[in-house]
């Protein structure tokens, strides 16, 4: 009698363990194995080859801010431009009617036409600091011109 009872307990324990192993946990659906849930699934080397987005077409730079920056600071010689990171670096130049030369680094950090998207750094000769009012005036001129370009483009 004891062997029959022990055998039933072993069978019941095996069935319970087998059924517990089939469950996918609290978040798994009926047809969803635990390895395919998004929170459990891991990235493999093959995922790198499955990318469907072309990285050469995704540019996160506002074209109006970009063009306005080049127009407003057209008296500065452009040294490097990178439209994919949104950086324009210029050499030294003197503004029309001004006596002091400047160089600029412009960073357009967002595709939105917004003041927060534009970062401007001006330097005088020898890396001298430029007054914040001058930098603000140039930023305002770039933003104003960018808005004008947007209006001309007809995309309000």
TrEMBL record:
Cross-referenced InterPro entries: DUF3576
UniProt-recorded name of the protein: DUF3576 domain-containing protein
PROSITE patterns: PROKAR_LIPOPROTEIN
Stretch forming the signal peptide: 1-28
Lineage summary: Bacteria, Pseudomonadati, Pseudomonadota, Alphaproteobacteria, Rhodobacterales
Keyword annotations of the record: Signal
The species this protein was found in: Paracoccus lichenicola
Any Pfam family: DUF3576
């Amino acid at each position: 009698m004891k062997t029959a009872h022990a055998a039933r307990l072993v069978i019941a324990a095996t069935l319970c363990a087998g059924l517990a192993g089939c469950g996918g946990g609290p978040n798994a659906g009926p047809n969803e194995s635990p390895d395919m849930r998004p929170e459990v699934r891991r990235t493999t080397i093959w995922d790198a080859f499955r990318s469907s987005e072309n990285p050469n077409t995704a540019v996160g730079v506002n074209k109006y801010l970009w063009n306005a920056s080049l127009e407003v600071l057209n008296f500065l010689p452009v040294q490097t431009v990178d439209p994919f990171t949104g950086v324009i670096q210029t050499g030294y130049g003197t503004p029309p009617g001004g006596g002091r030369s400047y160089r600029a680094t412009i960073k357009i950090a967002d595709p939105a036409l917004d003041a927060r998207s534009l970062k401007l750094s001006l330097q005088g000769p020898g890396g001298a600091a430029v007054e914040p009012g001058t930098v603000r005036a140039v930023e305002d001129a770039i933003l104003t011109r960018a808005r004008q370009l947007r209006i001309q483009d007809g995309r309000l």
